[in-house]
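Retry 2 of 3 after timeout on previous attempt. Resubmitting structure tokens to design endpoint.
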């Protein structure tokens, strides 16, 4: 397990003990948003030039918006000079929540926007196949030309025209 995974696992255990798993996840998503929207904030948190207390004090802006255990946990991370792991730790925490709640994430790529009726049918088919709640992120990429490419649980199912053309090219190159 990576260091970020170990931190995420520790926070997940703490959140489960306090029955705050979902609230902590929401709090971590807010932290990710703050980091993404505040230029240089992650660098500030990671900088040895900034006194530790100043870095920890900057977390107080999150008070009342995230569970106290998230702020305390982030303070521990800052104390151990692991601020750069925060985004990866949040991703690992999300994976632990997905396991707990039986969620599988998938990415479906099509050349044009998929109609809502087809989205629902795809989600139902994937849920039936996995026996889990599948959350699909839809991506539009004209380069696929037609069809659909699905990435789920590390498996790529490519039914796109582009994918078929690549397969044909590979066969032709072997001749």
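Retry 2 succeeded. Sequence:
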């Amino acid at each position: 397990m990576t260091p970020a995974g170990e931190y995420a696992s520790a926070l997940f255990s703490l959140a489960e003990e306090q029955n705050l798993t979902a609230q902590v996840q929401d709090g971590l998503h807010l932290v990710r948003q703050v980091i993404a929207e505040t230029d240089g904030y992650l660098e500030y948190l990671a900088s040895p030039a900034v006194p530790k207390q100043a870095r920890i004090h900057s977390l107080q802006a999150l008070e009342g918006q995230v569970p106290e255990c998230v702020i305390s946990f982030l303070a521990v991370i800052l104390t151990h000079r692991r601020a750069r792991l925060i985004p990866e730790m949040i991703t690992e925490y999300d994976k632990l929540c997905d396991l707990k709640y039986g969620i599988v994430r998938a990415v479906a790529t099509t050349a044009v926007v998929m109609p809502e009726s087809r989205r629902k049918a795809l989600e139902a088919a994937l849920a039936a196949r996995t026996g889990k709640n599948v959350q699909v992120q839809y991506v539009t990429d004209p380069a696929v030309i037609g069809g659909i490419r699905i990435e789920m649980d590390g498996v790529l199912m490519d039914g796109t025209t582009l994918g078929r053309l690549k397969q044909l090219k590979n066969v032709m190159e072997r001749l």
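Attempt log closed. The mean pLDDT is 93.
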